[in-house]
Every structure is written in C-alpha cells, then in structure tokens.
C-alpha cells in the first residue's frame, strides 16, 4: 500500500512557483524595511540617557560632585538647552531624509533596485555604527553627531521607494490594501525591535544601542544583494499589468471583447502591453505630480507623518518625564504605540479594500485620532492600565492612515490609469508622497523640541491641529469618493453627472 504524501510536503506543493516567489519577495522586503526602521529608533531611546537627573544617582567613588550637578550627562547634552540640541539631531536626519527622498525616487526608477537597496543598507549600517562608536571614542562634538545624522538620513532614503516599487511589481490591486497593510507592519515591528535592542544596552553602554542595529541593517543589505528579485519577468513568473493585475486577471469588459474577437487578438493585446512596458520611459517629477490625487495625499501625509514621527522621537522622553519611568522602562512602554500601529495599518487596509474609499478611510481615522490624543494627554498618566490602553488606541489611529497612504495609496497612484501603461512611475510617485510626508516628519520633532519647554499640553495641541489639517487636505477626495458611491448605488436607468 502506497503511503500518503507527508503533510508538510503537501503544504509546500500546494503553492505554485509564482506563489513561492511572491511570498519570498514579501518576506524579504518586510525584513529589509524592518531593518531600516530598527536602525532609526535608538536615538529616541538614548536621549533620556544622554541627559539625566544626576541628583537621583549615586556618583562613582572618588568623584567630587559638589559643584557639578551634570556629572552623569553626556557633553554637549549636559546643559539646559539639551532639548534644543536633541531637536537639532532629529532634524539633521529628517531634513536630509526629506530632501533626499525627492531625488531617491528618480534614482530608484533608473538603477537596479537590488544594487540600490544593498548600497543603502550597508551605508546606513556604517553611519549608525559610527554614532555608537562616539561613545567609545568619547566624542563630545555636536558637529560629529549632526554630520552622521545627515549622512544617515540621506542613506535611509534608498529604502522606501525601492521596496514599494518592488512589491508593486509583484502584487496586483485586488487585495493591495490588505496585503500592504500587513506588510507595512514592518515599520512598527522595526520600531519595536529597535526600542528593545537599544533599551537592552542604554543603561550600561549606550554606544551598543547604535552598533547592534547598525550591524543588523548591514547584514540585511548583504542578504538583499544575494536574494532580491526585482520583477516577476526576471525569473519567468507571471508579470503584472500596468494596472497592477496579473496577465490572467482581466476586467469583464475585456473578457467579453476577447470572447468576440478571438484568442489571437487577445494575444496581440498582451504583446502590445508588454512592448509598451518595455519601451516606457521613467516619468518626470512634474508628470508624477499631475497624477490625480498625488498632491492631496502628499499634503495629508505631511501632517499625518508630523504626528507619527513626533511620537517616534519624543514618546520615550515624554513617558520618562511625565510618568517618571527609567530610560529602559520608558522605551519598552513606548513600543505599545507601534503595536497599535500594526493593528491600525492592517485595519485601514481591510476597510479601504472593502469600501474602495482610501481617502475616506484615512479621514475617519484621523478624525478619531484627534480627540484620542487629547484624552491620552489628559488621562493617560493616571494608571499603568490607562497608559497601555491609550497608547494602543492612539497608535492604531495615528499610524493607520500613515501606513495606508505610504503603501496601498502610493502603489495605486503609481499605476494610475492616466499613465496609459507606464508603470515605471511607481518609485517616483512613492518618493514624492513620502518625501512630502518627511517634511512633516522633520517639522514634528523640531516643533516638539521648541514647544515642550512651555509644557507638554502645548505639544499635544499642536498634534491635534496637525490631524485636523491632514483631514482638510483630503476633503475633496472624500467628497469625490462619496459622490462615486452614491452614483454607483443608483439604478442603472439613471445617469450620474
């Protein structure tokens, strides 16, 4: 009697060759961008170690601290202007990132993605490690750390346009919101891992809080070089249409057309699509801006990312100052914001896939986020349970729209029907949207550093105003989506104008 096939083998063989390649691309790009965010997080954890309340600590034996109340701080962050200096470091990274992002998409369209990503991760690893080596080399120059932040910000721009373009090459639009919602959890996973790794070393030797993440992202750069496949055509897998569908997936109208005209015409149409793709030129910057929805979503993301990155860079310090936790505890607790962000990103993708309203989904979540931010600042410090609950809720509502815009929306616009078959706009559109958002990411931590000395309440008022402005820029698209929904629900005998 022949024995049945082993369950594990049955599971493996149940997936097609295309399925295995698509799964591996999703996993690899997830790993790559997790490493990018993992290497960004240490600075926010280490801040509370660079400037501490020395009166609560026991000085080393033989150290005279009678006339030195900043003996435990790291120069130059030992003075009263330490928040402003932290803001400078944050903005050296974020301004360089924002400026570089607009050029990164252009390079991403014209260079092999595998080389581009590998180079970016290796160089990001180098500069992240150099920041940590400042601890062992006893470097106390603000210029040294600021230069490293600028260079790291430029190198980090290689990541997002490239990974979104790669995923867009492999996956169609059908479940793009859900797939990219799950995939985009790499942002929160990277933040969580970065917080935990940095927190493990911050109290003993904060230099390792940078060196270990730097080595990790450099290692993923090596993996990228050996294993990334940019397009399905490179390994003879089913390619995508410019609309993002596989060649086998067609609209009903197109199916009817083929049934009447015959298979020969269908084959000719397929060949013409492939030829158009082959000879399509990369889109210009101005051309990408003219795609309907790019400007609105870009400006919305500017304010949504302002809120998200203010939490990314200042939440551990806020928890440490307001709730009075130690650096490691504050860093660990701040990861709950990113856990909420994972759920929010997936939920936003599912809802937008089901309703077809990307802008409406973002707008509703942003409207809900504003009062939740007010409540978190008001009642979030009352108990540990309340803090945990509010961090999870705020994380989901703040990061949900941010995740949806930077993934599914960017991919949709990069393969918009107005491009007439030219899908090479994906990286440029992604860079424009995320680059504009990165301006907000730079402004948020800067404003937080300037406003926080007047009170944390004012920082939260600023974040609430940013949420309201993000909704405002989506209002036209929300109206159009509502109008389209109403028209489609009407009887076919009526015509919508």
From TrEMBL:
Coiled coil: none annotated. It is found in: Endoplasmic reticulum membrane. Residues 28-483 form the Major facilitator superfamily (MFS) profile domain. It comes from the Eukaryota. The chain crosses the membrane at residues 20-38, 84-103, 115-137, 143-171, 183-202, 208-229, 294-315, 359-376, 388-413, 459-479. GO terms for molecular function: glucose 6-phosphate:phosphate antiporter activity. Keywords: Antiport, Endoplasmic reticulum, Glycoprotein, Membrane, Sugar transport, Transmembrane, Transmembrane helix, Transport. It is a multi-pass membrane protein. It holds the Pfam family MFS_1. Belongs to the major facilitator superfamily. Organophosphate:Pi antiporter (OPA) (TC 2.A.1.4) family. This is Glucose-6-phosphate exchanger SLC37A2. It comes from Tetraodon nigroviridis.
């Amino acid at each position: 009697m022949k024995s049945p096939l082993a369950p594990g083998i049955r599971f493996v063989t149940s997936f097609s060759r295309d399925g295995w390649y698509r799964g591996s691309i999703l996993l690899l790009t997830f790993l790559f961008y997790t490493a990018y965010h993992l290497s960004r997080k240490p600075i926010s954890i280490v801040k509370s170690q660079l400037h501490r309340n020395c009166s609560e600590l026991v000085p080393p034996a033989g150290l005279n601290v009678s006339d030195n109340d900043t003996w435990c701080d790291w120069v130059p962050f030992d003075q009263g202007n330490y928040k402003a200096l932290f803001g400078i470091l944050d903005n050296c990274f974020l301004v360089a990132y924002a400026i570089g992002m607009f050029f990164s998409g252009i390079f991403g369209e014209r260079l092999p993605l595998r080389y581009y990503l590998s180079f970016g991760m290796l160089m990001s690893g180098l500069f992240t490690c150099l920041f940590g080596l400042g601890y062992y080399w006893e470097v106390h120059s603000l210029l040294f750390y600021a230069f490293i932040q600028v260079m790291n910000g430029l190198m980090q721009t290689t990541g997002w346009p490239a990974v979104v373009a790669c995923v867009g090459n492999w996956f169609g639009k059908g479940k793009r919101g859900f797939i990219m919602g799950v995939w985009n959890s790499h942002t929160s996973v990277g933040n969580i891992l970065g917080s935990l790794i940095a927190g493990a070393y911050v109290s003993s030797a904060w230099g390792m809080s940078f060196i270990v993440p730097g080595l990790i992202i450099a290692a993923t750069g090596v993996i990228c070089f050996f294993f990334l496949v940019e397009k399905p055509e490179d390994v003879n897998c089913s390619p995508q249409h410019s609309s993002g569908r596989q060649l086998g997936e067609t609209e009903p109208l197109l199916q009817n057309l083929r049934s009447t005209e015959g298979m020969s015409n269908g084959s000719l149409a397929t060949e013409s699509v492939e030829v158009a793709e082959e000879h399509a030129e990369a889109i210009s910057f101005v051309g990408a801006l003219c795609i309907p929805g790019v400007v609105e979503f870009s400006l919305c993301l500017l304010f949504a990312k302002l809120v998200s990155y203010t939490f990314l860079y200042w939440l551990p310090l806020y928890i440490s100052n307001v709730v009075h936790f130690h650096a490691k505890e504050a860093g660990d607790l701040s990861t709950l914001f990113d856990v909420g962000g994972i759920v929010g990103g997936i939920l936003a993708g599912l809802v937008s896939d089901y309703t077809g309203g990307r802008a409406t989904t973002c707008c509703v979540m942003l409207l809900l986020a504003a009062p939740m931010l007010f409540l978190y600042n008001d009642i979030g410090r009352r108990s540990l349970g309340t803090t945990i609950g509010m961090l999870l809720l705020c994380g989901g509502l703040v990061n949900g729209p941010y995740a949806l815009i930077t993934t599914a929306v960017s991919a949709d616009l990069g393969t918009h029907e107005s491009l007439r078959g030219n899908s090479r706009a994906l990286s440029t559109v992604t860079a424009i949207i995320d680059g504009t958002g990165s301006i907000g990411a730079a402004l948020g931590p800067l404003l937080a550093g300037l406003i926080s000395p007047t009170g944390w309440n004012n920082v939260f008022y600023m974040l609430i105003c940013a949420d309201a402005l993000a909704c405002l820029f989506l209002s036209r698209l929300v109206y159009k989506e509502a109008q389209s929904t109403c028209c489609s629900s009407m009887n076919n005998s009526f015509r919508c104008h």
